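Students often ask why we bother predicting the structure of a whole assembly rather than each chain alone. The short answer is interfaces. A chain on its own may look different once its partners are present, and contacts between molecules only exist in the joint model. In this exercise we take two input lines together and write out one structure for the complete complex. Read the inputs first and try to guess which parts will touch.
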Amino acid sequence: MAEKGIVCETVQIDLANGEQFSDAYKAINPDCVVPALELDDGSYLSEILAICYYLEAQHPEPALLGASDKERAQILMWNGKVEQQGLMAVADAFRNSAKGLKNRATTGPVSYPQIPELAERGRDRVEQFFHKLDGQLENNEFVAGDRYSIADISAMVAVDFAARIKMSLPDDVVNARRWYEAVSSRPSAAA
Amino acid sequence: MAEKGIVCETVQIDLANGEQFSDAYKAINPDCVVPALELDDGSYLSEILAICYYLEAQHPEPALLGASDKERAQILMWNGKVEQQGLMAVADAFRNSAKGLKNRATTGPVSYPQIPELAERGRDRVEQFFHKLDGQLENNEFVAGDRYSIADISAMVAVDFAARIKMSLPDDVVNARRWYEAVSSRPSAAA
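Now the answer. The structure tokens for the assembled complex follow.
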């Protein structure tokens, strides 16, 4: 939204105090996760990619999902890889180890106990992800190629989220560090 | 592809014998997962949603990703929920318990040992998913609403995949069973 200059009323959900499990929020998204976008007709969208797609359709410029069919497919491909190999890996590590999430190892209304081995596997996968990102950024300015896109936003969020498990881009991933420096300096990153 | 009548040369990758880890396939998709789509310019797409998006752009009819911005966003939303809560849950259960996948608990080039607790959690999440699907299909003909879409294909694959962990739609999810009967009888389901 910040990249596109979209101004939108926001309502903060108090995750620390479990507001996402309230009946009021369950009526918005029964999966109890944020964010959700209220449309003009009063219906709600959840799932980040669905929200990004809708916002891009309403506010095409600047394009964050690509300008041609092939470019959009490549961005969706890289965004999917980043979600599975980056964001999910950090989430596995974080949710299965954080003291405050003892029986909250997954998002959603059902309680599951933490699995320490899954936290460990998550950390190893985050390490792999950092190097994968570095490899891709060796010959590309941005994660999906020449254009800044939602794949960069997802990857930046994954790197930032990794701070919660005390992991950061290692010194030797010079391409990923160059990229992170660039994307995290954009004005939108502070929004 | 079958729904759209797209004819495309296919090359079978011998997963049982590890052909996805060969140098030849790694050059196509370094993540060692199928499917991948070769484009006319010789480049490759991986990640199912990216491939579906590209095929829909080249062959718009019948629309499997929606006909309006809002409908497409809703289909992306439901497809995301099905992937995370259905397909991933079955995959967690299957990959972390199958005898033939002892050190192959995740897809990809790195070997990780199975985590039995994760298999158990996966099975519980599949049960939740079947009931979630049923709730959504109580007032909707298809998973994302009135239109057959990739969300139905993903959900049907999740139900079919669950047979690998000996789970199936329980007797009491009558709406999901009515839906499964309909979608699995489409000619494309046999393709």
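Check your guess against this: The domain at 15-58 of chain B is CATH 3.40.30.10 (Glutaredoxin).
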